[in-house]
Amino acid sequence: MAGLAAATLMLLPLLDGDRSTFCLTGDATVCSYTADRFTLVIQFLVLGGALLTALLSVTALKEGRKELPEGEYWFLLLSSAAGAALLPASRDLATLIVALEVASLPAFALVGLKYGDRKSSEAALKFFLSSVTATAVSLMGISFVYASTGTLYLTQVADRIQNVDGQLHTLAQTGVVLTLVGFAFKTAAVPFHFWVPDTYVGAPLPIAAYLSVIGKAVGFSGLILVTVVALPSYADLWGPALAVLAALTMTVGNVGALRQQATRAYSAVRLLAWSSVGQAGYLLVPIAAAAYSGDAEKSIGSTVAYALMYGAVNLGAFAVAALVGRTKSLNRVADYRGLYASSPLSALLLAFFLLCLAGLPPGIIGLFAKVTVFAAAVDAGLGWLAVIMAVNVVIALFYYLQWTTLLFRAPEGEPEEHRVPAPLTAAIALTGVLGIVLSGAPQLVLRFTDTALF
User: Fold this and answer.
1) Which of 34, 53, 67, 260 could in theory staple to 20 by disulfide, Cβ–Cβ 3.0 to 4.6 A?
2) Domain spans, the chain
3) Burial code of 32-56, b = ≥16 C-beta within 10 A, e = fewer?
4) How far apart are CA 261 and CA 269, in angstroms?
5) Cβ partners under 8 Å of residue 416, min gap 6
6) Which string of DSSP letters, residue by residue, matches 286-334?
């Protein structure tokens, strides 16, 4: 935790201007690593999210000492966080893939790290197979792009792919499509989302929280770099594709979460997993809008602002889920009935986090973030996508509000005492304070929609 906190603080001196390194000899504008505003914002999200995951992990490791080996756990978590922090700074396709794998490979092991847990092993296998397939597809696409342009640097790819020889045009188009498909896997976009519910349920709960935020940050930052920086001339290809993926992803995610209501025994973590798929659809909307908008930076800023809001409140929801999971091993949504009677502050904060995800007051930051995403779609002329988003927001209200009202209903039997360990208290308090501050001063996040990120 001290290492993650120090790494986060060491980003502050870099805010005074853009920096690049590993540049081509004779051309200082073509580099492999760039620390610009986009990079630093995503790195703050990654390292801050990893720090909160570490706080959640302390209690999980202490109480599951026989199931989770501490040394391996911390090494894998820090390795994955290092790869996730490298990815937004990557400005060539080779570094991008290396960062993606450094972030992903330790995550497979973290998901399957529980000794003797069949669900954990099954979740790790599903996650591994889907992710390896995504990487293979991405590498094939990148190899085609390299064959067409003769370079791996994103800015050079952007210049050269516009003037590809006619015989290589089909190869370049295929490379663009395959590269995008690979990153769609990483973002859990439909139809590449099938691994998410089982992986989140089978993984240790702090790792499910980590994947829901940091995993998404990795996928979306990579997708932004590939589309907006490397392939702006192919916007007519990736723009409509991402718009359709956004519509499908938010719809399937929210309908999947709604279907969980059919049984009383449905898991809170599974509900959050389906919710995260739906949220991924909202995050895709501004990236798709960047293909149609004259101001791509503003559209990308909407995704970044939404990701910051989502990261804070989703980690908070998982922190409260970790609290309930200490006494209710199945962690069903029904187990949250009457939480207010036994742990008033935790119940109020979970209600606040769920309202933020739903986009309802007093979760002002969730409401404003959704408005910016909605505005990005309308400004880009994607009215049909804005309508689908509005319908999905209404669908999501049902399961978010149903869970919220359950917290304040009379408990069945005597209310249980929830003793909160200090690290878990710190995680819930930090996410709560962050969510409340952002709701009181949403401009802290929303200003990225009007700021040049690249």
Assistant:
1) 34
2) 35-54+65-230, 236-454
3) bbbbbbbbbbbbbbbbbbbbbbbbb
4) 13
5) 327, 342
6) HHHHHTT-S-HHHHHHHHHHHHHHHHHHHHHHHHHHHHHHTT-TT-BGG
- 297, 454 in Cβ contact below 8 A? yes
DSSP reduced 3-state for 32: strand
Chain centroid to CA 198 = 17
Quote the DSSP letter at residue 192: S
| Rounded Cα–Cα distance for residues 3 and 6 (Å) | 5
Alpha carbon distance 346, 173 (integer Å): 51
Query: How far apart are the C-alpha atoms of 224 and 222, rounded to whole Å?
Result: 5
Whole-number CA gyration radius for the chain: 21
The one-character DSSP state at 164 is -
Rounded average pLDDT per 10-residue block, the chain, 454 residues: 92 89 87 92 94 91 74 93 94 92 91 82 87 88 92 91 85 89 83 86 91 91 91 89 93 88 71 92 92 80 90 92 83 85 89 92 88 90 92 92 88 68 89 92 83 70
Question: What token pair was written down for 227?
Answer: 């589309």
Give the C-alpha separation, 451 to 454, whole Å. 9
Task: Evaluate whether 396 touches 388 at the Cβ level (below 8 Å).
Answer: no
Q: Tokens 């790494």 identify what position?
A: 7
Which H or E run includes 29? strand 27-35
